[in-house]
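Bug report (template v2)

What were you trying to do?
Predict the complex of my protein with benzoyl coenzyme A.

What happened?
Run completed; filing so the output is reviewed.

Input:
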Amino acid sequence: MNIAQVDYDGLIPNNVALGQDVRVKRALEKWHPGYLNWWNDMGPEGFQESLVYLRTAISVDPKGWAKFDYVRMPEYRWGVLLAPQMEGRKVNFGMHKGEDAWQEVPGEYRAMLRRLVVIQGDTEPASVEQQRFLGKTAPSLYDMRNLFQVNVEEGRLLWAMVYLLQKYFGTDGREEAEALLQRRSGDPDTPRMLGAFNEKTPDWLSFFMFTYFTDRDGKMQLEALAQSGFDPLSRTCRFMLTEEAHHMFVGETGVTRVVQRTCEAMKEAGITDPNEIEKVRKLGVIDLPTIQKKANLHFSLTLDLFGNEISTNAANAFHAGLKGRYREDRLKDDHQLESGTYPVLRLIDGKIQNEDSPALSALNMRLRDDYVVDANAGVGRWNKVIEGFGIPFEIKLPHVAFHRHIGEFSSIKADVNGHLMSDADWAKRQSEFLPSDGDKDFIESLMKPQMEPAKFASWIAPPKVGIDNKAGDFEYVKLA
Ligand code: BYC
């Protein structure tokens, strides 16, 4: 079979010759009904019968792997897709550098690998759960389609991790695959594993910020796992990254369109001061300071996903050749990091300052730094829109010490510029930095659905181009 082509004949589309792997095929077929139950219970509420114009992967060839068509979401063909195997691939970092990449799980690293796969897998259904009510307040059919595309693909990313668990981790893997369907985002008894995936995504601005900031953590983590010496994980993550790109596009363009509409409305009304919040809100758009607060919230929640700045887990995973750095294969050093150092921002004598730490221990910090650079690029593009309207306002990412719950700064309070604050000050001033109840109520008041083709809610501009180059009046979702 051509690895680039996907076999759609069986119940589970795949490019891993599942037909010849009876044990894994049976295990996945057994897991499938539970997955569908989960999707029907926790997937987009109210739209399971609607016909959605979705893309489905028909090959893993980077050029044109998608086919667009109307699909009812529960009938979406979730499958197992891996990027093609690279002939002669080696482990390219850590103590096994230069050895052949592993096609099976090395016994000594089984537990560590399983943990990485389970954590990655847990985030995928979590995001679907977080976003399940958003369809009801979609600002357009175009946006609704994008939400559902993101949702079905997060479902597929869960399949990707479940395939690895079922194929390579025996009974433990089967149990973990079941448990991935049992945990629930935000549930006090059975929460999802990582903090940000138990937060609410209550409105569309949060959805766009989440897909911009949090999906970008997905990108960074997947890039690091794509370097893995465990080849099936690497191949899985490489294909997942092609899907992830669309999710970040939804986030980046979503925020751009919100910013654009706000600026247009301000210009039409002759408002030049972005801090005239009440006047701007009366125009039915979201004022720029509130957009900034949402960015502060989602950026800081996402930083927590990088774990502790200094981490033995991360050092061990690198040393073992299981999780590399961001684009490890493009870096120029010894790829072993036994002796080097890396500057880590720490709290020393009550001051936030850099301290050189062993590079191997500082890998979470390093990935987080790479993330911040990546995240800043899109923020620059939002600011270009604001600048184009001549409005004196700049969206800025807050300091990494701001509003943290994991790592070095979880024990302190800092403002968005990284100035330390007392608990009392924080309590008084936090609504300057994070959305207040009033801000949340205002945004909620705007979340009126707009379900006619070609129409958009008051607070968001139409996109520049349609999905699959469709015209502006295309009916992206045929509501049931
Ligand atoms: N919340 O040694 P440390 C995505 C725990 S997003 C709760 O620093 P490590 C997506 C940690 O588990 C990408 N607990 O940890 C995006 C550990 O506990 P144990 C998801 C946390 O391992 C949008 C302890 O604290 N993929 O794909 O270096 C939509 C010590 O911590 C948190 C991955 O994350 C937290 N935030 O770093 C859909 C990749 N942070 O084990 C999808 C896989 C830390 O001692 N995961 N802890 O009880 C990893 O690489 C790492 O496990 C982490 C943590 C980066 C998450």
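What did the reviewer find?
The longest strand covers residues 341-348. Residues 116, 119-120, 123-124, 127, 154, 194-195, 214-215, 217-218, 221, 304-308, 311, 313-314, 323, 364, 406 surround benzoyl coenzyme A (CB under 6 Å).
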